[in-house]
TrEMBL record:
The keyword Membrane applies. The chain crosses the membrane at residues 21-41, 47-65, 77-93, 99-117. Pfam families: DUF805. InterPro entries: DUF805 (IPR008523). Keywords: Membrane, Transmembrane, Transmembrane helix. It comes from Asticcacaulis currens. The keyword Phosphoprotein does not apply. This is DUF805 domain-containing protein.
Amino acid sequence: MTQKIDWSELFFSSTGRVRQTPFLIALAVLVGLFMIYDSAITGAPRVLTGWVVYPALLFCAACVLSKRLHDRGRSGWWAAVILIAFMMVWPRPDNFLDFVGALVLLWAAIDLGAMPGERGANRYGRSMRFASPIEQN
C-alpha cells in the first residue's frame, strides 16, 4: 500500500519526503510552466510579472527538490545549488561557467531522478514505499 500524494503540499512545503515518480512529474510540470511563461510573455509584461512568477516557480521548485533530497538522505539546502545551476543554464548555456551548472544539473538528474530513496525512516521522515504493513498503520 502506498501513500497518496498531496500535490499542494508537494509544491508548497519543503518538509518530508517524496518518491521518484511524483518528483519527476512535479519537475516536468515546473519546467513546463517555465517554458510556457518564457515563450508566451515578452517585453514589458514580462518585466512586470517576472517579479512574481519567477520567485513563485523557484519557491515551488525548492520545495519539490528539498523533499526529494530528503528522500535521498540529504539536506534540502542542496536545492539552492541545483536552482542556481538551473538559473545559470536557463534557457541555454552561454559560457564556460554555464558548463559547470550543466554538470551540477546532470548530477542532480542522476541522483534525484534515477537513484532510489533511502529505505525505511531517515531523519526527514518515513518512506511509505519500503514500509512494512505494521509501520504503515
